[in-house]
Amino acid sequence: MPFGCGGRYFFGLMEFAENRPVPGKGSRRVGCPLAAALIVLVLALLAGFIFLRVESWPGRAANQSVAELERLGRDARDTFLRLAHLQPRVTVNNRVYLEQTTTIAELSVLARRVEVEHEMLHSWAGSTKRIRLHGTFAVKAGFDLRQRFTVAVNSREIVLELPHAQILSVEQEQVEVLALENGFWNRISTNDIQNELGVLPQLARQKSAALPAEAENVFTRQLLEKFHPKQPVRAIFPAPSPAG
């Protein structure tokens, strides 16, 4: 082979080798931008998810908080139902959650036997008549369930707003006549006896004046023994004490 021809053949092979594409090099140039785009897409999706979770967190937390307060309101309602057969008016964050309902009119909390005596002396023209009586009465104190009972629930505390207790009944158990003495012309009449008998329950009611306050303390203690959430609980009696 002539020398000139061999040289051209050698340098031709070198040029062919330099210009021949390296296997996989082009695909790597295509794959790198695609991988970068996928990473950016994943990061963008992750950032969007985190943003949505952070943005919706106050609303979700508020919903969970309200649901928990409503559960406390139902627990308070159940306690009233067990003790008084009464569903109180329940508010959650100043919003009415449950309205008041009851199946009975009164709740007797305390009953006490009270004994009283009463004497009447009446003189006329030097003649005196005398009546002396002894009475035993069962006095009951409690609540009129037709009045308002409210449970106000919020995140700071729970306020139980109750009406004042009152004397519900004064029931006669026994009456004894200790003295029944006529004057010479000042005689005891049927009206005299009826009037003096009517004084006895009034005396029993007056003697039991402290019983409603005791009933309030007993009922409040029973409520707090059965209803004790994490929040502080206060029982208040804002209404004026009813007469009688």
Structure overview:
This protein starts with a helix and ends in an 8-residue tail after the last strand. Helices cover 45% and strands 32% of the residues. Strand 2 and strand 3 (95-98) form a beta hairpin. It has helices at residues 3-19, 25-84, 190-207, 211-226; strands at residues 86-87, 89-92, 95-98, 101-102, 106-124, 127-144, 150-153, 158-161, 166-181, 233-236. A 5-stranded mixed sheet has the order 3-2-7-8-10, with helices on one face. The chain has a domain at 73-236. With 244 residues, it is α+β, with helices and mostly antiparallel strands.
Could you provide a short overview of the structure?
The longest helix has 60 residues.
Q: What are the main properties of this structure?
A:
three-stranded antiparallel sheet; alpha+beta; single chain; 4 helices; 244 residues
